[in-house]
Amino acid sequence: xxxxxxxxxxxxxxxxxxxxxxxxxxxxxxxxxxxxxxxxxxxxxxxxxxxxxxxxxxxxxxxxxxxxxxxxxxxxxxxxxxxxxxxxxxxxxxxxxxxxxxxxxxxxxxxxxxxxxxxxxxxxxxxxxxxxxxxxxxxxxxxxxxxxxxxxxxxxxxxxxxxxxxxxxxxxxxxxxxxxxxxxxxxxxxxxxxxxxxxxxxxxxxxxxxxxxxxxxxxxxxxxxxxxxxxxxxxxxxxxxxxxxxxxxxxxxxxxxxxxxxxxxxxxxxxxxxxxxxxxxxxxxxxxxxxxxxxxxxxxxxxxxxxxxxxxxxxxxxxxxxxxxxxxxxxxxxxxxxxxxxxxxxxxxxxxxxxxxxxxxxxxxxxxxxxxxxxxxxxxxxxxxxxxxxxxxxxxxxxxxxxxxxxxxxxxxxxxxxxxxxxxxxxxxxxxxxxxxxxxxxxxxxxxxxxxxxxxxxxxxxxxxxxxxxxxxxxxxxxxxxxxxxxxxxxxxxxxxxxxxxxxxxxxxxxxxxxxxxxxxxxxxxxxxxxxxxxxxxxxxxxxxxxxxxxxxxxxxxxxxxxxxxxxxxxxxxxxxxxxxxxxxxxxxxxxxxxxxxxxxxxxxxxxxxxxxxxxxxxxxxxxxxxxxxxxxxxxxxxxxxxxxxxxxxxxxxxxxxxxxx
Length: 662
Prior knowledge:
Helices cover 37% and strands 20% of the residues.
């Protein structure tokens, strides 16, 4: 990037960040996720480091946060309440340590790690052991006096415990006012019943609650407050000791803090809490890593808006910002053409991604995404990420609109859009790309689960003419594989053993492997339980299929069309002739027989495991809320399904109640 380009980019970033800072810190609202905001700030900081002459006095990197609201009395802090620098990787953490040890001219003794709670920072002042004032962080220098509201939080002591030494006349502590997930969910249930807009997250509700003019409203929100810093000097020598003193004085502190000898211990702490945090009562987005020794802390001091002696090590973000380098078309197993954004590699949800699905032309239009745009991407689990927002304010004018192709990029057939469908598709059933994707689906984990037969190997086998249809996989011989590139005798034997082992398969997985449009795992299970054999399913009429719960006209028509195709009929016959053993589903007469279940929200176990427990007892899993649903099992953050079930007066149970039923 040239200096001229950097100047333009910095100006746009400053304007965008200031907009989101105002929403977040002053109005308690946000349009983008915290993680996406963090990455915008990081990009600005990196550019200012690369081009120091371009750093502006009004840059968000030069100050701490938003200004105090006029409706509360403004209070100047006794000492600046600075913010934390962010670390997103082991390398960031190591760089931080290296810089600090260079300043200290000695090794850092150890670290104190704390979970970073997602709430509103407050400073509490005690005079002669009595709580006299509570102030928000504000811009780090001036905050808002919210004493009356903070007094409604029961975890904030109004008077301090007698301690082993005399409490000084003035004592200050710093903490985080938060709302538990349980209280947040209950509040949103009330919003849903009243047909009001649901709250976005616990942090925003906590911040808004503390800024209410009427303390009764704050009291009704059932907030909590955890104290994490003793500002006043009581002779403490380490942060670990400070936390013990805070607990002795009667403050609520986190029970999850740990002393870490080195950065390896810190990394282990982060990894441990990455999954465990989902079961915590509070939202948390990272770990605060603190230089434990207070002498070293004082020597390190601060730089700019951040303390040198502590850093926020963020959990792998599920959202971040990046650039769209190109848009390509991917042809699926059903012929659907899916636009895929080629991204500047970005680290999100624990891994580096370089592609994101754009779904279809309508989605491209809705997002107004163009080649060259800066976008926010989101990733949940191990799936390909989505683009959730285009940051149009960062455009330079060089971005290019994407033109959807009129021909299939794999076989050059004219693409079509069927009535009622949003996606364009390739009508050529012999299309190479469709064949590849169909076979990849056939051997996937949820289908035949053939280990060692990944995307690259499938393409290699098709290119060599060894595999044309899925049935050809079971005709492969050692002599076919050994001459291929990257195939030694051992690898070839292992693959053949895996293929042989996959010949024994449940009817549901067999149906799913066929790749019938609209037939996912749950529908395949319903079909297997309803017809008990592939022959009976192949002969089922449209009316027979529609009788099955969750199968409507579109799905029924798709199934009939698939089995009426002579190529598909031959595939079934070929597979059976190759001694594929299809296991007939056992009809369970357990306690859930003829009962339907639907799971919503986060559970302590995998969703698939919970569904298997239901099926093992004869129950059925459905995909939507209807009057025929027997049980809705609601985990954490259940969403709209819970509100709909409540309106229909359906039976709603917790995960604990579900387990007791088992």
